Amino acid sequence: MDQQALADLKVVEFTQGMAGPWIGRMLAWCGAEVIRIESHRVPGVVRLYVPPAAKDRKIQPEMSPWFTDWDAGKLFVTLNLKEPGGAELARKLVARCDLVVENHRFGAMDKLGLDWETLRGVNPELIAISSSGFGDHGLHPGYVSWGPNIEAMSGMAWLGGFPEGQGAMTQYAYPDSLSALHGLFAVLCALDHRERTGEGQRITLAQLETTVAMIGPEMMDQLAHDQAPARLGNRSTYRAPQGCYACAGEDRYCALSVSSPEEWHALCRIIGREEWAGDAHLASLAGRQQAADRIDEAIESWTRSRSPQDAAKTLQAAGVPAGAVQNTEDQYRRDPHLAERGYFETIPHLKKGEVVAPGIPLGLTGTPGRTPRAGAAMGEDNASVFRDLLGLTETEYADYLATGAIEAPPEPNPESPSPSPTGD
Amino acid sequence: MVAGGKSALAGRRVLEIADESGVYCGKLLADMGADVIKIERPGGDAGRARAPFLADRPGEDRSLHFLYMNTSKRGITLDLGRAESAPLLRSLALGADIVLETLPVGRLDALGIGHASLAAEKPEIVVTSITGFGQTGPHSHWKSSDLVAGAVGGPLHVTGDADDPPVALAGEQNFLMASTCAAASSMIALLSAARTGRGQHVDISLQETTLSVSHISGVGKWLDDGIIPRRVGTGLTASVPSGAYACQDGRAYLMVNRPAHWKALAQWIHEETGNEEVLDPLFEGPSSRRIEYRELLDLFISDMTALHTVNEIFHEGQRRHIAFTPLQSTEDAARDSHLQSRDFFVEVDHSATGPLRYPGAPFRPESTPWSISRPAPRVGEHNQEILGGELGLAQETLESLGQAGVI
Predict the structure, then answer these.
(1) Is A246 close to B289, i.e. CB distance below 8 A?
(2) What is the pLDDT of residues A222-272, one digit of tens each?
(3) Delimiting residues of CATH 3.40.50.10540 domain(s) in chain B
(4) A106 touches chain B (CB under 8 A)
(5) Among A197, A409, B8, B286, which residue's Cβ finds the most Cβ atoms within 10 Å?
(6) Which chain A positions have a beta carbon within 8 Å of B332's beta carbon?
(7) CATH superfamily of B13-213+342-403
(8) Average pLDDT taken over every residue of chain A
(9) Rounded-to-integer distance, Cα A150 and Cα A146, Å
(10) pLDDT, tens only, B8-42
(11) Average pLDDT of A173-180?
(12) Which residue in A has a C-alpha nearest to residue B67's C-alpha?
């Protein structure tokens, strides 16, 4: 097999949620060795999964599809970082790695003796990223937040949606993924700098700032004019018509966008309004924006009798940007293009045999990535990481287990709301 | 650039031939110190005509979108379609570490600067392409837009109120995520090339980047539970409680993911409203346990939030380690006291607009700070410096290219 792009990179994760773990997931896909440190005392939220069809089976931390999506491909160890021996082993892992990814609450790493100065002390060329909602300084760095909290706070939620509405929010904790992608880019820049200078460094990321940067032009409008920008819904300042149009079937829509004269003329032809193609008023963007309601009505009267896939195909064949509003099932079962590109990844799963996950969209055609494994238990790789990679002897390993520095799996307790081993 | 500050990507060069789907990729690289040369068509990029404008008056240096998305870049004009451009374009491409482009599939090859052609002369070069559907597959020649990417990539189906049609987020987020992914991939390709001597073609598909950033309730979960997510307003389908709750003077957003956070919230509701039922152990445990009680719990929470202002809920909630935050307008965000305390917004002086405030660093590297080293270029601002000074074109050649409309 070709060497993977980041085959030499070693990463240690002190993470939770999604914004931190997704960075490691993508690095692991590129061939990096990514060791995620967990604790049975505070299991990651993506592991807190109860099978919907069998609630009596309680929480199944290896089976969670979210755990696959954000964590597949990594090595998993369990340490009690509050034990001196646990923190010591964590520092030993840091000493042999290139990169630390951390997204615990502000101050949590310091309390554990894993603050930046200490880590840099054991590894002078270390690169570390700390990702949190509010960053490491300012009025309230310690406040707790999840992705949607940040989306609400940034102005993005308020500005989204239809003009007459109250805003729109994603259902996918968008600030988590946008922060992860920015964090990934930031650490790669730091690695490139280190390659050339030998200098490591720390990067902090405040998800609130990253998210506000995602509505940059709109915030500049607000800041320059002290006036809120307009909510655009599905419309655009530079494309018209543009919208989501109801199609045949329940809750089915097709989206389309028109900007060039050629696209406009093609659309007029398709929807049976050839006379509009010669209308001087509608030849300009401004003219079509003024007539948007009338044009939308005509488009929808054409789409209503068609499936979104057929409508999109007809429009694209005539050169009009269009696409079916797809749900999860459409993407997986009814999108021949995604299928041919092999977008979805089938990953070997330790408990289920195999699982399907969304692809990692890095598009590295020369060094394609892959996810070697999903479904690891907490502490799955304790023995191999601490004995083979860190070089602990049998006796040392047993001592760390005995003090609880390396956490052993807890005894199953059917009454406990904390994770139990896989159900019957 | 901060005086005396180092830049992570100093010495790296990028050639940008990008429309609105890829400009943010160039900005990310440029604000980290790469020398990004943006090619515009003679007369200026179409993005300069894009609203909103400063004081609502169009002008080639007044588009706020263009000003924001092109910071720290240098700009030249070149008509890609002209035969005279071909040797210039090739020199510029071979002088770069990364060629970033958003042209229709096949166009870069036709211009003589496709990856294979450049790599024959410079094996370590990275060519990063952003297109609607990627370089291969039955839809590779389909056209796209931010809205179309949101349709085929999934976010539209799940965004908005349950009774409304699907609706987009503000700010063309699908373009921004494709751009951010492209920036990260380009850096991975550069790091790999530094070891192997071989660059590569990075194939970014808007559909795929959109799908991957929005997949929280995606294929794995659906294959597992058979539930196809759709629009549900402000809450997250799989997380209960979550959503925006009305206070006396606005709304506050709440998310409860951890069992301990639910207990803290239930206790607070009980203290404030006297509600006993909320303490029922039935509701305890992880979020997914509470899914069937969503409506009831929303009522319990609203009873309490209605008693307070947004700020009271925000700060008292946080004191109890409950993730309540205000739902802020852009005006609130512009004045947000935490962002102010971190000097997030930065001032950038442009010769055409005077100083304006811009959103600042999306992340903060300590030794090689993010910074806006220069404002967006004016039309052809660096033609002389780059085509004359760096490519070594004679003054007469530059003038005749200008007269012929090539630059």
Answers:
(1) no
(2) 999 999 999 999 999 999 999 999 999 999 999 999 999 999 999 999 999
(3) 13-213+342-403
(4) no
(5) B8
(6) 155, 158
(7) Crotonobetainyl-coa:carnitine coa-transferase; domain 1 (3.40.50.10540)
(8) 93
(9) 7
(10) 999 999 999 999 999 999 999 999 999 999 999 99
(11) 96
(12) A217
Q: How far apart are CA A296 and CA B167, in angstroms?
A: 15
Give the integer Cα–Cα distance in Å for B297 and B302. Answer: 9
pLDDT, tens digit (0-9, with 9 covering 90-100), for B127-168: 999 999 999 999 999 999 999 999 999 999 999 999 999 999
For residues A98-106, average pLDDT = 93
Amino acid letter, residue B396? E
Chain B partners of A169 at a C-beta cutoff of 8 Å? Answer: 159, 233-234, 244
pLDDT number for residue B340: 98
Chain centroid to CA B293: how far? 36
Same domain, A209 and A356: yes
- Is residue A87 located within the same domain as residue A137? yes
Each residue's pLDDT tens digit, A193-205: 999 999 999 999 9
Kindly list the residues from chain B whose CB atom is less than 8 angstroms away from the CB atom of residue A324: 151-152
CATH of the domain at A284: 3.30.1540.10
Tokens of A198: 């030998």
Contact status, residue B386 vs residue A248, Cβ threshold 8 Å: no
Q: Do B144 and A321 touch (CB under 8 A)?
A: yes
Residues in A 275-304 with any Cβ partner in B closer than 8 A:
none
Q: Are residue A201 and residue A138 in the same domain, yes or no? A: yes
Within-domain flag for A233: no
d(CA B54, CA B44) in angstroms, rounded, equals 18
pLDDT in tens, A351-396: 999 999 999 999 999 999 999 999 999 999 999 999 999 999 999 9
- Answer yes or no: do A272 and A187 share one domain: no
Q: How far apart are CA A86 and CA A38, in angstroms?
A: 11
* Most confident segment among A56-60, A188-192, B220-224: A188-192
The residue length of chain A stands at: 424
Query: What pTM value is reported for the model?
Result: 0.96
Amino acid in position A234: N
Share of chain B above pLDDT 90, in %: 88
What are the CB-based long-range contacts (under 8 Å, 24+) for B58-63? B59/B352, B60/B378, B60/B379, B61/B350, B61/B352, B61/B353, B61/B376, B61/B378, B62/B352, B62/B353
Using a CB–CB cutoff of 8 Å, tell me whether A186 touches chain B: yes
Minimal Cβ distance to B330: which of A159, A188, A323 = A159
Is A1 touching B (CB cutoff 8 A)? no
Using an 8 Å CB-CB cutoff, list chain A residues near B165: 234, 244, 246, 253
**Is the alpha carbon torsion for B55, B58, B61, B65 positive or negative?**
positive
Buried b (16+ CB within 10 A) or exposed e, A26-40: bbbbbbbbbbbbbbb
| Band (B218; pLDDT cuts 50, 70, 90) | confident
Residue A413: pLDDT band with limits 50, 70, 90: low
The domain in which residue A290 lies consists of 242-327
Let me know whether A312 and A350 are in one domain.
no
Identify whether the C-beta of residue B204 lies closer than 8 Å to the C-beta of residue B185. Answer: yes
According to DSSP, the β-strands at B201-205 and B126-131 are parallel
Number of domains in chain A: 2
The alpha-carbon gap from A403 to the nearest alpha carbon of chain B, in Å, equals 27
Q: Decide if A192 and B228 are in contact by the 8 Å CB cutoff.
A: no
CATH of the domain at A129: 3.40.50.10540
Q: Do B222 and A361 touch (CB under 8 A)?
A: no
pLDDT tens across B341-358, in order?
999 999 999 999 999 999
Whether residue A172 lies within 8 A of chain B, CB to CB, comes out as: yes
Q: Is it true that domain B242-328 has CATH number 2.60.120.650?
A: no
Q: Give mean pLDDT, residues B109-125.
A: 97
Residues of chain B with CATH 3.30.1540.10: 242-328
